[in-house]
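Lecture 7 notes: from sequence to structure.

We start with a single chain of 202 residues. Read the sequence below before looking at the structure.
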Amino acid sequence: LQPQSSEEAKAFVHSFLKRSMPQMKGEAIQDMLTRKAVVLEHYPQKKTKQKRKKTKGFTAKQRRELRLFEIEPEQQRYAIFLPLHELWKQYIRDLCHGLKPDTQPHVIQGKLLKADLHGAIVTVTKSKCPSYVGITGIILQEFKHVFKIITKEDKLKVVPKLNNVFSLEIDGFISYIFGSKFLLRASERSAKKFKLKGTIDL
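Now the structure, written as tokens:
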């Protein structure tokens, strides 16, 4: 290696900086040299974010095959679900901020229509099919089109919502549910706007 003069070294550094930082003008490079402090910019490569794989749940067919929503015959007893009904009543009282005698009925009606009904005791009061009228029991499962109800006789009844009117009583307040206007999953009702009055063709 041959020793370089100060001018040659300065020219080398100047050309090196110009190649390394082409976006900088000569005046800026000269200013950096006079300060005797050179910081070379580094442009790191952008890391590509790996997309997280979403865990897939069971399909409706797989849920049916696995019988995830089936209630075993030995569990189909009314007495087993009475504690669930007591929990549901407390849940409704909290939801309505206490069921007081001066509470407006339409306020309670609006709350009940959007509430979770698992554990509620309902009665079929009107129906196009006379065999459904009078069925009373605790709602164990709610689907888009049907209620599964356990009666006091320990019988599991599947009652369609369509063309049926259900009554629901709690602390002296009676509410009516028009099933034809209620064809929704339980999780979808919280965002649904209901009309407090309904009709049914009987």
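Residues 76-191 form a domain with the SH3 type barrels. fold (CATH 2.30.30.210). Keep this in mind for problem set 3.
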